[in-house]
Amino acid sequence: MIEKTKLLDFDNLAFHTHPSCDKAVMAQLNMGDITISVVANTLDGHGLYGHIDDDEYEVAMWQFGNSDMIPLGVGDDVLAGQSPVQVSKLMRDAQLDGDVWVDLLRKLRKDFRDELGLDD
Questions:
Q1: What is the mean pLDDT of the chain?
Q2: Which residues pair with 62 in a beta bridge?
Q3: Which 8-state DSSP code applies to residue 31?
Q4: If we measure between CA atoms, which residue out of 18, 12, 25 comes closest to residue 53?
Q5: Residues 7-53 pLDDT 10s
Q6: Number of domains, the chain
Q7: Which of 5, 25, 32, 72 could be 15's S-S partner, Cβ–Cβ 3.0 to 4.6 Å?
Q8: Position 5 in a domain
Q9: Dist CA 104 CA 100 (whole Å)
Q10: Is 6 domain-assigned?
Q11: What pTM was computed for the model?
Q12: Can you tell me the distance from the alpha carbon of 111 to that of 108, in angstroms, rounded to the nearest whole number?
């Protein structure tokens, strides 16, 4: 019988005060060879693309052994204003599809840049 593995999601993130800003929170979680970082402003904090009062978060991810961040968007490595459900979906994709998912995101980024002639 195949044992089901419970996927990590937003509820598994342990937030603490951001090390660079006392008006922000941060959580990092290792999911095998992919790490997720989720941050948000608190109180009257600013500078991050999410605020805890709005239940919106800024998300970045990277893969072990690769110095480049995973391109979560075609135009940026980080995603802004993500809900807990959206964060959980990113975590699910990373855990279930791993390298294939990362390769697809990198191809989408390359196609976007090629279409705009950014690397000519």
A1: 93
A2: 35, 69
A3: E
A4: 25
A5: 999 999 999 999 999 899 999 999 999 999 999 999 998 889 999 99
A6: 1
A7: 25
A8: no
A9: 6
A10: no
A11: 0.91
A12: 5
